[in-house]
């Protein structure tokens, strides 16, 4: 075995001089403890929001899409905005677990489990919107290509909307498999230290009979690596395909070739922001500050300022092209419908600019990147901004058509549209509360693996060794 | 299935485990397995295991996905129902790339995970014998299979000398069976002990 050594200049990823057993204790203890009062309150609020969402959807299914305030030219309003918003949030988890694994970024180990869980829940929320937007939701299976009695009439494989069906369902399946295969060894850890019979039984089922055999670990490593390799282009493809929903149309404001990279950067931006929102709270509540350190928070804030700036450049490029193309429809959309503060939806454009482009620049300062309050506040602001972005792209591009006679009246959502959105928040947080209570929120086995490379105790020992060696060398050299 | 006799040595540090593995192997004992709480890199090589071919299986599943998508879509759009979409070509390969790519990834991922579970015998309700409950916590558990010639007392002493913090001899079933982790029952009982 080679000596594991990491530069002293790098911050330790695990604080304190911990043993393997302590790592298990720290991370598994919240699962074994009784849920706190705060957890019950949070869970109850989430379930209530979910129930309101279920009622809103019930009304939509019973009375039709007319329950929403969509109108003549705004056929995609809040629902598709929310769809794209949730899918975007669902990008950080797989990015952290896949791309950062391939790039050998050690800090991913502390945050990947929670981020992947968040991804899966966000994609679940996202999926609701296009499904219920179909109106006759009981015919949703028509989007799947299967030999049928209607011809057989097939789906249109040339349509970006169908690409979306494949992209989102593949993304969900692969993320779920990736997440669960990582969870199996950790479930086994919970199972083997379980004191109650019920817990032993349930985690016994969930852990699939994992023993920790060397051969199994070898295959597990190979599986994780290949899944990471597959997920990396997958993450990039999913939001690319979502952007094709717009980019392959001929609507001014949507018909843009920079959409794929711009959407992917935006997705990572909002996904990391949501990860921050959740982790800043989770690490405090569960006492995991030694594992999700300020170093982790800072690394994620760096990604936020990078991707936020990419998105900013994309906004400016769009504006420039709106003028440079000399296409009057493009120019009208970008310079009148969006950039003009006094146009009907100008507020959303400038809200987006302020939240996504200007405010993340605060993270150029190290002090701000390492400030928990600023991080939490900014993470919320970024997601508000990213919601505005999708709203701007969708609504400001379609509310004034080529024919002034079909220009719509001012679109604002109905209570049932808002209720549906609230319901997905309920779904997301209900799932997240259950996850935080019953699942190891940090990948225990992966932390144990990095412990003797980048744990604080290990680094101190390596540091003294390094000093001693230098002294010995100086001593030898002098004689 | 018959039970077998095993000598179990538990180590609490991978730095002690590696030389111990080497010693045990040079002494000619057959290591049944080493159970570890996390993936210890290099241990598979130290145990003389060959590389896994799981990634090759993944590649085969992937190209199966590619060909499935390509052949299905081209059959549908050129033979079964050549739909006229704005006079565009029926065989519109560039427009199919997204779906072909997604199915490649989907087949590879699902296939690999199922294969992984199959070859490692992992499934809900599967139960196996665990030599030490701390093998998923902080112990590296080396299990040596005994033959009729093995002197267990000698072997235990040998393991202690090699740095094991805990040694024991166990008679156990090394396969898997369907069962619950909160109960000790097995669907069958065999008391034949090999070796």
Protein described:
The complex is a heterodimer of chains A (479) and B (195). The model of chain A has no long low-confidence stretch (mean pLDDT 89). In chain A, helix 5 (108-133) crosses helix 9 (259-285), helix 10 crosses helix 11 (328-338) and helix 16 packs parallel to helix 17. Helix content of chain A is 70%, strand content 0%. Chain A has helices at 20-32, 37-63, 78-89, 92-102, 108-133, 160-192, 197-206, 214-247, 259-285, 294-324, 328-338, 346-358, 366-369, 372-398, 415-438, 444-454, 456-478. Chain A has 17 helices and no strands. Chain B has 195 residues and is α+β, with helices and mostly antiparallel strands. Chain B has 2 domains: 3-47 and 125-194, Alpha-Beta Plaits (2-Layer Sandwich); 54-119, no CATH class. Chain B is built from 5 helices and 7 strands; from the N terminus they run βαβαααββαβββ. In chain B, the strands form 2 sheets. In chain B, strands 1, 2, 4, 5 and 7 form a 5-stranded mixed β-sheet that branches. In chain B, helix 3 (54-80) packs antiparallel against helix 4 (93-119). The model of chain B has no long low-confidence stretch (mean pLDDT 89). At the A-B interface, helix 1, helix 6, helix 7, helix 8 and helix 16 of A face helix 1, strand 2, helix 3, helix 4 and strand 3 of B.
The dominant shape of chain A is: globular
Question: What kind of sheet is the major sheet of chain B?
Answer: 5 strands, mixed
* Number of beta strands of chain A: 0
Largest interface: A-B, 72 and 71 residues
DSSP E strands of chain B, number: 7
* Main pleated sheet of chain A: none
Describe the protein's topology.
The complex is a heterodimer of chains A (479) and B (195).
Chain A: H1 20-32, H2 37-63, H3 78-89, H4 92-102, H5 108-133, H6 160-192, H7 197-206, H8 214-247, H9 259-285, H10 294-324, H11 328-338, H12 346-358, H13 366-369, H14 372-398, H15 415-438, H16 444-454, H17 456-478
Helix pairs in contact in A: 1-16, 2-15, 3-5, 3-9, 3-14, 4-5, 4-8, 5-6, 5-9, 5-15, 6-7, 6-8, 8-9, 9-10, 9-14, 10-11, 10-12, 12-14, 16-17
Chain B: E1 3-11, H1 14-26, E2 30-35, H2 43-46, H3 54-80, H4 93-119, E3 126-128, E4 140-145, H5 152-161, E5 166-172, E6 176-178, E7 193-194
Parallel strand pairs in B: 1-7
Antiparallel strand pairs in B: 1-4, 1-5, 2-4, 3-6
Helix pairs in contact in B: 3-4
